[in-house]
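TOPIC: backbone geometry
CONTENTS: sequence, structure tokens:
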Amino acid sequence: MSEIAKFIAEVAGNIEGLKADQDVQALSRIWLREITRHKYAYNFTWLGRPLIQLPQDMVAVQELVWRVKPDLIIETGVAHGGSLIYSASLLELIGGPGRVIGVDIDIRAHNRVEIEKHPLAHRIQLIQGSSVDLAVIRRVRQAARGCERIMVFLDSNHTHTHVLQELRGYSPLVTKGSYLVVFDTLIEDMPSDLIKERPWGKGNNPKTAVWEFLKKNRRFQVDKDIESKLLITVAPDGYLRCIAD
């Protein structure tokens, strides 16, 4: 066995150990719960734009993008544009014509200005409209024609119904071996007092949508290794690997 293979095997063993360690899993849930009260994810930027993601999840996304080397990443939910810039920067490092499409029902003018003047704007296409509007989905599908490796990130409206519609609308675009990542599935696991004045909550969130989606869709399976090695993630049961054409 080569030294590289030995290291890969060691990491795999580490992940299996974390899966089995109920104490560290419980501590991680407590830590995640408490940092959420302080809007911890708001603290970080990527190349000048607010990211609004946990650094641990961004490391996982980087690993997936480098592994898959997609020529298209589709993201629902734009906010300040940090995630789009992050994806674009990874594609820039990989090289080639890779693009990012960002879909949002409300791309605010000040955020659009900052995104469009960013040095990586040439890799980004913005589409304003509801991510579940059939006309928007058709537009995205048209833009995806000819792409061989497509990855999708869902991070817009977090209600069960909306995310389920997104899953059904965008999952056919994800190519075998790539990923569909559903963010903020942790809403199902958080105390109700952390979700105030929102249309989503326990029993009505991205994780419940993923569970329903997977009952009928056999192209995807949850990659439990990712959340086990991260420990701190907003996307438990949200890293979906595409295992079939």
About this structure: The beta strands are 45-46, 49-50, 72-76, 99-104, 124-128, 150-154, 179-182, 220-222, 239-242. The chain has a mean pLDDT of 97.
